Amino acid sequence: MPRHVVVLTGAGISAESGLGTFRDAGGLWANHRIEDVATPEGFIKNPQLVHYFYNQRRAELQRVAPNAAHHALVDLEAELEVGMGGGLTLITQNVDDLHERAGSRSVLHMHGELLKARCEACAAVFPWHRDLGSEDVCIACGHSSLRPRIVWFGEVPFHLDAIDAAMARADLFISIGTSGSVYPAAGLVRLARTLGVRTVELNLEPSENHDFFDESHQGPAATIVPAFIA
Ligand SMILES: CC(C)NC(=O)[C@H](Cc1c[nH]c2ccccc12)NC(=O)[C@H](CCCC/N=C(/NCCC(=O)O)S[C@H]1O[C@H](COP(=O)(O)OP(=O)(O)OC[C@H]2O[C@@H](n3cnc4c(N)ncnc43)[C@H](O)[C@@H]2O)[C@@H](O)[C@H]1O)NC(=O)OCc1ccccc1
């Protein structure tokens, strides 16, 4: 029975909660060009468009709730800690707070969080639950240079050291609801293999890294994640 489990989640785990994924039909990238809304260059060129993109998603987030897949990971966290004296490291590419709302206690948001803002003048980070705009002022330094605390393309993801440390002690790596198309997140399954860690894919369809998994189960996350964890 594995004791130290690393789970990586992507947009697919939040799909059944009603949040759009990126690459699926009608997904986020169907209506917006990545370079316009998810790059530092796009933010300099058109901050209103970028704020509009994230304000839409922040408002939508407050209308949805975690699903059975999020809740199953809370049970796994407790089981590993209490039962096995081990632990769960939950790494997510998602910027939503559905893992925390389900009850997950330690979540590594490697691509940031929608409900936080960061000041580009003094680097202060604080919770932000309403629309964000260029006129908004940083409560720490008074400058109006706030941006969503999100990792854009070309920017270094968060928590890379904690992620490497968790992978180094893992005995099971589970990937849930991700297409495996964005790096360095998509490279974690290969790192797991080089470390001799067992790898499992839980996804609606085979991901771009399907061949790197020892075991793969296809289906909707809210069904297959509780089934796999039970
Ligand atoms: C497009 C891609 C090729 N480009 C990259 O990967 C780039 C460049 C790059 C770096 N290394 C490379 C190597 C090779 C090639 C390119 C690169 N990477 C970067 O720029 C990264 C930064 C990338 C982060 C960008 N920000 C995001 N998000 C925040 C914004 C926002 O949210 O708006 S990425 C964003 O897109 C990705 C979307 O992927 P998924 O979540 O998987 O969603 P998707 O829609 O694609 O797939 C959904 C899946 O779910 C499944 N599904 C659907 N419904 C269900 C269901 N119901 N149940 C189960 N599964 C389901 C579907 O079948 C599908 O498989 C996520 O990562 C998400 O966070 N930064 C960096 O590399 O810095 C340097 C560095 C790196 C390391 C160390 C030092 C320096």
From TrEMBL:
Reaction catalyzed: N(6)-acetyl-L-lysyl-[protein] + NAD(+) + H2O = 2''-O-acetyl-ADP-D-ribose + nicotinamide + L-lysyl-[protein]; N(6)-succinyl-L-lysyl-[protein] + NAD(+) + H2O = 2''-O-succinyl-ADP-D-ribose + nicotinamide + L-lysyl-[protein]
PROSITE patterns: SIRTUIN
Record: residues binding Zn(2+): 119, 122, 138, 141
Positions of the Deacetylase sirtuin-type domain: 1-230
Keywords: Cytoplasm, Metal-binding, NAD, Transferase, Zinc
Residues binding substrate: 54, 57
Cofactor requirements of the protein: Zn(2+)
Family under the similarity heading: Belongs to the sirtuin family. Class III subfamily.
Function: NAD-dependent lysine deacetylase and desuccinylase that specifically removes acetyl and succinyl groups on target proteins. Modulates the activities of several proteins which are inactive in their acylated form.
Protein's name in the database: NAD-dependent protein deacylase
